[in-house]
Structure formats: C-alpha cells, structure tokens
Amino acid sequence: MTPGLERALSLIADVPDFPEPGILFKDITPLLDDATALGSVVEALAAPGRDDAGRPVVDKVLGMESRGFILGAPVALALGVGFVPVRKAGKLPRPTYAVSYALEYGEATLEVHQDALQPGDRVLLVDDVLATGGTAKATVDLVGMCGGSVHAVAMLMELSFLPGRAALDGVPLTTLLSV
C-alpha cells in the first residue's frame, strides 16, 4: 500500500451507534473532503480495470447507489470509460432490468437501464463497502442481463466478518481496506 493510500484510508472516521445502537459506521466524508486522499483512492480503485501496462481493459464502470456513484464516476474518468449508475427501484426513467435481493431486514431491488451496456462489454463494479454481498451480487446479475461481463469488483472497504466475498462466487475482488 502506498503512503498516499494509507493516509487516505486513515481519514475514514468511525461513528459509534449510527444509524442505530451497536453499529460502528464507517464515515468516508473526511476522505472525500481531501482531494489528494480522494485521488489516491480513485487510482487504487481503478487499478483492477487496467492491464499490467496501465491500459484500460474495461468498457464501463458501474457504481451502486449511492456511495458507489461518488467513487465510481471518478474511477470511470480515470480509466477513460463511461459510467453507469445502478439505482434503487423506480429511480431510472427509461426501461430497466431489475434484480431483487434479500436484506437482513427485508428486500431491496436494484435497476439498470436496459441499454446501459452493449453485449460483450467488460465492466468494473465500484462501491464503498462489501458487507453481505447482496448489492454486489445483484449488480453482477444485472450486468449479465445486459449481456456484459464483470471483469472485477473494486471496493473501498470489506467487512471481513460478513460473507460478502462468498456472494461474489469467484468474481475478482479488490478491497482497499478490510475491517
């Protein structure tokens, strides 16, 4: 890990008992507020979308609502490729594909525009936290519905005490911080 990335990750603040008692929330806003730190994180998250010579090997970056938008859009810019938002149900204006998945407290649905990817597009998925893996797995499924393939998943943090990695079933995964 580079000193710049190490410094960037040290800016993530712990907020106890948010959003409810017993939860230790990882607040990335101090990291986002520091341009140098954010740049280090963006470059590290873009790395799985490059070959050994530094050339992009993906056609698109997909970011999952909502902090995946904040991180995914600059990753797409760094790679010189387009960005595709993966949204909660009912937020996209044109025809969509949808995948519902279980949460510990209910169910959620994610959507992507049906024309977001071309058949054969290789994509990099970007988000802030890998926890149970439901959001990431649903997004992998959406990519498949569009005819694309997931080249890799890049996450800022992984909650290693939860089974998120297993939900990705062998999809290459890069995480910058494991907690």
Question: How would you describe this protein?
Answer:
The chain is an alpha/beta fold. It has one domain: Rossmann fold (3-Layer(aba) Sandwich). Helix content is 30%, strand content 34%. The strands form 2 sheets. Strands 5-6-4-3-7-8-9 form a 7-stranded mixed β-sheet, with helices on both faces. A two-stranded antiparallel sheet has the order 1-2. Helix 1 packs across helix 3 and helix 3 crosses helix 4. It is globular and about 40 Å long. The protein starts with a helix and ends with a strand. The mean pLDDT is 96.
Question: Helix and strand layout, with pairings?
Answer:
Layout: H1 3-10, E1 13-16, E2 24-27, H2 29-32, H3 35-46, E3 60-64, H4 67-79, E4 82-88, E5 96-103, E6 106-113, E7 122-130, H5 134-145, E8 149-158, H6 164-167, E9 173-178
Parallel strand pairs: 3-4, 3-7, 7-8, 8-9
Antiparallel strand pairs: 1-2, 4-6, 5-6
Helix pairs in contact: 1-3, 3-4
| Main sheet overview | 7 strands, mixed
* CATH architectural label: 3-Layer(aba) Sandwich
What share of the residues does DSSP label as strand, in percent? 25-35%
- What's the number of structural domains? 1
By CATH reckoning, the class would read Alpha Beta
Nearest-integer average pLDDT: 96
Query: Helix count?
Result: 6
Helix content: 25-40%
Shape: globular
According to CATH, the fold-level topology is Rossmann fold
- Tell me the distance between the termini: 16 Å
The Cα radius of gyration reads 16 Å
How do the strands line up in the largest sheet?
Answer: 5-6-4-3-7-8-9
Number of DSSP E strands: 9
The SS-based structural class is alpha/beta
**pLDDT < 50 stretches:** none
The topology string of helices and strands comes to HEEHHEHEEEEHEHE
